[in-house]
Design a protein that fits this description.
- It is a single chain.
- Strand 14 and strand 15 form a beta hairpin.
- The strands form two sheets. Strands 1, 2, 3, 4, 5, 6, 8, 9, 13 and 16 form a ten-stranded mixed beta sheet that branches. Strands 12-11-10-7-14-15 form a six-stranded antiparallel beta sheet, with helices on one face.
- By secondary structure, the protein is α+β, with helices and mostly antiparallel strands.
- The radius of gyration is 19 Å and the shape is globular.
- Helix 2 packs parallel to helix 3 and helix 6 packs across helix 7.
Length: 314
C-alpha cells in the first residue's frame, strides 16, 4: 500500500524525540513498505504535502504529530480515496484517544503496516469554513488554546495551569445559539462543538459523542466561580460534564452562534480570529480514517451509506 508519512518535527513530543523520523524510515525499510517520510517546515505545509500525496496515488497519508498536524493533513484528504492514519505525538491526541489508536509510535506504526486495522468513514465539521475533526470552540475554550499554544513545555500539567489562569480572567459572554428547531440566548463561559467525545487527555467534553452519526454535539457552559469551575473540571475527566445544571448540551447537524463582538475561535486547538457570527456544520462521513479492528469508538464501516440526520435535543 502506497503510504506517505508527514512528520512535524515541532509538534508536541516530537521535539523530545529528535530521532523519530529516522526510526520511521528504519521501520519502513525493515518492513519493505512502499512508503516515504517527508518533513514539514512551516505552518500549513502539512496540508500541501498531504494534498500532493493524495494526488500522486497514496492510499494512506500518515500524520506524525499532534492535533494541529492531524488537522492540517486531514484537510487535504477530505472527500478523497486516501485514508488518514495517525502516529499521535501531541499533548492531547483527542481524536486518537477517541478512536482507541495506539499512543506509542511503535504501536501506531505496527497498526499502519499490519492487518489489525480497517478504514472507516468519519464525519467532520467546519466552523466559519475552517475544517475541524475533533472539536472547535469559543470563549474560554479558545482562550485556553491561545495561551497553551504559546507554552514551551506542554502536556496535561501545563494545560491545567493554563486553564486555571484563563478561568480567573474570563468574563461571561452573551451568545445566541440557533439550530434547525432551537433558538436561545445564554450567558456562557464557553461554547464547544465536538465531533468526538473529548478534547484530549480523556477530558470528555461530550460524553458518548460519535464520529459517524451525521451530528455534532454542542456544549455550552454557564458562568461559574472558581469552585464551580473546579467541580466542572472534575466532571470533565469523569465523563459526567453534561450532567451538571450549568451545562447545556445540544445535538444537531448545524449551529449558528451569534456573539456580541468578533473574537477568537479554535479548531482542533489552533486559534484564529472570527466574526461575531460563527456558523458550524457537519460534513457526514467525509474522511476515511484507519482505525483498529477493536476500536472502542462507535465507528461503522464505510458501507452502507448513513441514514438521514435528525436533530436530537436533550
Amino acid at each position: 500500500m502506497k503510504t506517505r508519512f508527514i512528520f512535524n518535527p515541532y509538534s508536541g513530543h516530537n521535539r523530545k524525540r529528535p530521532g523519530l523520523d529516522a526510526a520511521i524510515r528504519d521501520f519502513i525499510s525493515a518492513r519493505s513498505l512502499d512508503a516515504q517520510v517527508v518533513t514539514t517546515d512551516a505552518p500549513g505545509h502539512a496540508t500541501e504535502l498531504a494534498r500532493e500525496a493524495a494526488q500522486t496515488g497514496c492510499e494512506q497519508v500518515v500524520a506524525v504529530g499532534g492535533d494541529g498536524t492531524m488537522n492540517e493533513v486531514a484537510q487535504a484528504l477530505l472527500h478523497t480515496p486516501a485514508a488518514l492514519a495517525l502516529v499521535p505525538c501531541g499533548s492531547g491526541n483527542g481524536l486518537a484517544l477517541h478512536l482507541g489508536l495506539p499512543l506509542s509510535p511503535l504501536g501506531a506504526l505496527t497498526l499502519i503496516a499490519g492487518s489489525a486495522g480497517r478504514v472507516a468513514a468519519l464525519d467532520t465539521g467546519a466552523a466559519d469554513g475552517f475544517p475541524f475533526f475533533n472539536a472547535m470552540g469559543l470563549g474560554l475554550d479558545a482562550d485556553v488554546s491561545h495561551r497553551f499554544n504559546s507554552l514551551v513545555q506542554r502536556g496535561l500539567p501545563g494545560y491545567v495551569r493554563t486553564a486555571a489562569a484563563a478561568v480567573r480572567a474570563i468574563r461571561p459572554e452573551r451568545v445566541c445559539i440557533t439550530s434547525s428547531n432551537f433558538r436561545d440566548e445564554l450567558d456562557v463561559y464557553l461554547v464547544a462543538v465536538a465531533n468526538s467525545d473529548q478534547y484530549g487527555n480523556n477530558a470528555r467534553i461530550a460524553p458518548g459523542a460519535r464520529v459517524d452519526d451525521g451530528l455534532l454535539d454542542l456544549v455550552a457552559v454557564a458562568p461559574v466561580g472558581l469552585f464551580g469551575a473546579a467541580v466542572l473540571a472534575a466532571r470533565l475527566f469523569a465523563g459526567t460534564l453534561d450532567e451538571s445544571s450549568r451545562v447545556r448540551r445540544l445535538r444537531g447537524s448545524s449551529f449558528v452562534i451569534d456573539r456580541v463582538a468578533p473574537g477568537l475561535i479554535h479548531t482542533d486547538g489552533e486559534t484564529r480570529a472570527a466574526g461575531a457570527r460563527v456558523e458550524v456544520v457537519v460534513r457526514p462521513r467525509s474522511l476515511r480514517v484507519l482505525v483498529p479492528l477493536s476500536s472502542r469508538a462507535a465507528v461503522r464501516p464505510i458501507d452502507p451509506a448513513p441514514a438521514g440526520f435528525a436533530l436530537q435535543l436533550p
